[in-house]
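Lab notebook, entry 147. We have the chain sequence and a SMILES string for zinc ion, and the next step in the workflow is to get a structural model of the bound complex before anyone spends time on docking refinements. Request logged below.

Task: model protein plus zinc ion, output structure tokens.
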Amino acid sequence: MSHEPYKTVSAEEMARVKAEERKTLPAAAADPKSVKVNKSTGAGMDIEWKDSHRSHYSFAWLRDACPCATCNEEREQTGRKIGQPPASKPGALPMYKDPARPLEITPVGRYAISFHWNDGHTTGIYSWDFLRRECPCEECKADRVIS
Ligand SMILES: [Zn+2]
Ligand SMILES: [Zn+2]
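Result returned:
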């Protein structure tokens, strides 16, 4: 384990995510009043929280935000942010990729939701807490400043 300070985009991003995790959310902020997954229209997921905040997540965002260990590691290595699409490899021809959409949506206990994505990926468990902390709306984005 090295303790040398290094600063990369991903180190900053990890620091930001860890700082977010340390914050305690008011219970009502991480408790959905309603969850709507627009599977047939492909319009993503809408959550209304008990504190009346509303979040919208596109399926592409959710796929690129997958919180499983493999995706976390990949993001850490490439400096990709949660919800940010992977950069195409330099020199690689652009490949057509089916837009991300869930084939199946499974509630995980009372605290999370998981998706079976059309690319076969199934390991991400999206807790309400994670979704609220990473809410991609402008208001929340503006609030997420590294302290
Ligand atoms: Zn994943
Ligand atoms: Zn928000």
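Notes for the group: The chain has one domain: 9-84+101-143. Worth checking against the assay data. Residues 66, 68, 70-71, 121, 123-124 surround zinc ion (ligand 1) (CB under 6 Å).
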